[in-house]
Amino acid sequence: MPLDRYGEANRANWDERVAGHWASEFYDIEGFKAGKPPLYQIDIDAVGDLTGKSLIHLQCHIGTDTLGLARLGANVTGIDFSGESINAARRLSEESGVPGRFFETDLYESPNVVKEQFDIVFTGNGAICWLPDLKAWGQVITRFLKPGGTFYIREGHPLMWALQYDDVAPGEYILEQPYFYSDAPFAEDDEGSYADGQWDVKNKRQYNWKHSLGETVMALINAGLVIDSLIEHQEMNWEPLPGMITGEDGQRRLPEKYQDFVPLMFSIKAHKPA
Ligand SMILES: C[S@@+](CC[C@H](N)C(=O)[O-])C[C@H]1O[C@@H](n2cnc3c(N)ncnc32)[C@H](O)[C@@H]1O
Fold it and tell me: For residue 200, what pLDDT is reported?
């Protein structure tokens, strides 16, 4: 199925972000080539020993995490609907000498492009907010998993995405956006990327969807997966809100008075019954 106008706008926006992300400190491409691990430690701990495992990374962007997982021993495949992202991921694979296969495809079409099944399906880090339909997302995950295979996601928490900061003092937040799903996407203009700060993109308009924690968990359960763990985190590895505090561990947290009130990320581990 062709992308609708929301998907087209999002893809144009993501394509345009790639050059800036490739050059950014956040993605640290030169560091990756020099062997610096891009992955967040809690993801490494969660996925466990990857030696010889087949893994598909959904919405892999420029492939840093995908190839980081390859460095840990997995045979990796990445999919993303942004052709520029896929070109960058292939380039990174070639220039770093870390093997990986990358396919340009919309997530919902990806089972028609990548035919096999995998030991691990890996995703997250700002991925599902771009997806209109989590029920269909769950079906894609099940289709890609071998019986007994593992699914892992770490994402921005939907309560964190409901915070707003535009009309309040720096470091203050109010609950202003909905927590629950609505069919109509949220339209936002991209005034800068999480990786680059201010920049000037032509394709500014992007559309995202709210997915509550319950909706996400049920999408996985209804697709036939068994949930093994669900963890809510008080820190995160990127900075979607202004006024966050970066700790000595490099992680971002809300100012202290909010820390026990709002989770910033969640992670879920699940498996497909054998
Ligand atoms: C924030 S990035 C994900 C971050 C990535 N995991 C990383 O660590 O760099 C979101 C990615 O989702 C991709 N994306 C958005 N909607 C998609 C869709 N419908 N199908 C496939 N990829 C999509 C974008 O192109 C983008 O590369």
Answer: 73
pTM of the predicted model as reported, rounded to 2 decimal places: 0.96
Domain 5-271: CATH superfamily is Vaccinia Virus protein VP39 (3.40.50.150)
- In a 3-state reduction of DSSP, which class is residue 45? helix
Q: Where are the domains of the chain?
A: 5-271
The alpha carbon dihedral of 65, 68, 74, 80 has a sign of: positive
Report the candidate in 218, 225, 228 with the shortest Cα–Cα distance to residue 134.
218
Residue 135's closest CA among 232, 59, 207, 211? 211
How far, in Å, is the centroid of ligand 1 from the Cα of 14?
8
What is the spatial distance between Cα 137 and Cα 118, in angstroms, rounded to a whole number? Answer: 16
- Mean pLDDT calculated for residue range 189-197: 70
Q: With a cut of 70, say whether residue 196 has pLDDT above it.
A: no
Measured by CA distance, the residue closest to atom 9 of ligand 1 is: 61
Helix residue spans in 156-233 (DSSP H) = 158-161, 213-222
Q: How far is CA 245 from CA 5, 44, 168, 240, 252, in A?
A: 37, 24, 17, 12, 5
**C-alpha 59 – ligand 1 centre gap (Å):** 4
Q: Which amino acid is at 52?
A: G
